[in-house]
Amino acid sequence: MTPFTQRKESNSSSEDNRQDSWELVEDLRGLTGNIQKPVKQEGLMLKKRKWPMKGWHKRYFLLERGILTYAKTGNDLKKGRLRGRIDVGLSVMAVKKKSLCIDLDTEDSIYHLKAKTRDLFEQWVTELRHHRMFRQNEIAMEPPERQLQSDPTSNRRVLTLLIQSSITSVCESGLLELNLLLKNMEVLHRTFSAPAINLLQVGLFGLNMCLCFGLCGWDLPDGSRPLLQQVSSESRGSIPESLSEFFDAKEYLLSGSSSENEVSDDDSYISDVSDSMSVEYCRNENGITKAILSNGNDCALKRRDRLPSSRMNESVNLWSILRSNIGKDLSKVAMPVQLNEPLNTLQRLCEEVEYSHLLDTAVNTHDPHMRMVRVYIAAFAISAYACSFTRAGGKPFNPILGETYECLRPDKGFRFIAEQVSHHPPVSACHCESKNYTFWQDVRWKNKFWGKSMEIVPMGVTHLELPGFGDRYEWSKVTSCIHNILSGQRWIEHYGEMSIKHSTTMGDVSHCKVTFLKVGSGGLNANEVEGVVTDSHGRVIHSLFGKWSEALYLGKPPSVTCIWRANPMPEDHEQYYGFTQFAVELNELEEGLKPLLPLTDTRFRPDQRLLEEGDIAGAEEQKERIEVLQRERRRVLQENSMTHSPRFFKRAEDDSWVSNGTYWDLRKDPGFSKLEFPVLW
């Protein structure tokens, strides 16, 4: 058996290309009782941190019986001051020879390691491979009774490993592993409850049914309950209670510790809170949505409250698609339509202004020093992530070059446009305006798959102007990571530092720094954010904390005020892609709106519409046809030495994309029905 599976990045067989590509270390094939116990391996390696203190840092590692632990120094390791623990047998491992890099993707974190010399690299790779095989064999041979005594996270990982091992080995080794799998699953099923979770299904001999055992809802031996990274959506209706429960949670699970935070021992708490504003959505007997504000005002909106069809479950062998793309940018990898949700990236950008009332509140705040204004703008920037909480199960459609989207919301007081202005690299630009503010951004993403997780690294700057004040705010997005891509309960986290820069017309500059905390062991810090607002001299004038998925609070306990909370989720939202009420409305196409939209508007896109209606086969067929049309248009442009020019956006001096100010004027006169547009679909 060869130790590595070479990724097919090109047809070239040159050594340079092989050295510069990622190689996936294969899993154990079949059970054996004669794998020799590996020797201990220890020493210094470099470990990459994305946040805080970005870059490579020296860490002392110890590899023993398939478990890799590390600390800052060898002495710290001896004293038990560990920074992290990785079960190598339950990790996806990939190596890149040219850069001497080793990547380990667990369910919770992605570990990027690097050796200083070629000899050390070869030594660590050899030992890691040996220990990994030993550990996988040890797990597979472990009696079911012993597995049940281990922690919940390990049980879930053991189950996933057994399934993957069985699928790989059925053709080669008969039904031994499959029988072992079924035996373990029978015991697990008798012992634990199995909450419904959103999975990508394997689809071999019905094994997709077996993956439904998440094993994450039972009480721990001491009577406490571990915090899940993705809690029930019901918690969103009771923010103070869920936050209190969250802050009382303790570290009991022995899962791998955070790869970025490494150590976080602070205990958090929260007292009773007061709301500065609340919004409640209800639907009357005629199906009309009403947004009832805390002041008693309400406005009736005739909008749908659910999609035409619930999500259709069809098995997808995602591993066969992704295994050759570890470490790659996935934006260029074709994915089956079953993995999509019936919205696209342009509409996702519009979701970021769902809580635009925070900007209206900021503008109407009587604050001569602009201190509270900055607080509400920080809350607005954080609220953009709330819609992602229940959306780890699907990806948005990639917009076609020249595709557009408009959202006119008199009830919210804004009008929004977006356009796909570039295809390679993919760039989406948007512009939103109201009487109180102007908001715009162009966003580019780098998506990388690491074996079990996918990282989404956004690029570009978000801009906000308040015409009444003449001030400008700018910030960049943080990194996002979707865990358990292949199996188990998928969940999303956001981490990093968001620095909101405030520039006045007088030349003064101040900042609000918001930290999205990395999830720690046992779900510690899940979805938490912390922030401070400073003046032009760097002095802290306000403190913020909360959860990007639930609520944000101003002040410090016991005296705090809730300045934002997420809207309650629609009924049965789990069956409808985890969409918020706002998301459900985005792709709605009313008869009266059709003649007003350009033919390039996303709502006319047939593959996305068919998926929304539950026709997966039709959606896949239309998606392939649309992609062929796009490639043909690109070929024609290249053959004629032409480049694509966006219709409603232009490049600014800083190389960003801004609105050219023509969309709404052309919509009114002469009207889009009288203008020519490219045939996108």
Quick one: how many beta strands?
Answer: 31
Oligomer: single chain
Structural class: alpha+beta
Question: What global shape is seen?
Answer: globular
End-to-end CA span: 48 Å
If helices are DSSP runs of H or I spanning 4 or more residues, what is the number of helices?
16
* Strand content bin: 25-35%
Average predicted local confidence, pLDDT: 77
What does this structure look like?
- It is a single chain.
- The chain is an alpha+beta fold and 681 residues long.
- The protein contains 16 helices and 31 strands.
- The strands form five sheets. Strands 1-2-7-8-9-3-4-5-6 form a nine-stranded antiparallel beta sheet.
- It is globular.
- Mean pLDDT is 77; it is low at 1-12, 165-217 and 219-298.
- It is a peripheral membrane protein.
- It comes from Cyprinus carpio.
- Its main location: membrane.
Give a brief description.
The chain has 681 residues and is of the alpha+beta class.
Write the layout of secondary structure elements.
Layout: E1 4-6, H1 15-19, E2 22-25, E3 41-49, E4 55-64, E5 67-71, H2 74-78, E6 84-87, E7 92-96, E8 101-105, E9 110-114, H3 118-141, H4 144-148, H5 152-173, H6 176-191, H7 207-210, H8 239-248, E10 274-275, E11 279-283, E12 289-293, E13 298-301, H9 318-322, E14 340-344, H10 345-351, H11 357-363, H12 371-383, E15 395-397, E16 404-409, E17 414-422, E18 427-433, E19 438-449, E20 454-459, E21 462-466, E22 471-475, E23 479-483, E24 491-503, E25 509-516, E26 528-534, E27 540-547, E28 551-556, E29 559-565, H13 581-586, H14 606-612, H15 616-639, E30 649-651, E31 657-659, H16 663-668
Parallel strand pairs: 10-29, 14-15
Antiparallel strand pairs: 1-2, 2-7, 3-4, 3-9, 4-5, 5-6, 7-8, 8-9, 11-12, 12-13, 16-17, 17-18, 18-19, 19-20, 19-21, 20-23, 21-22, 22-24, 23-24, 24-25, 25-26, 26-27, 27-28, 28-29, 30-31
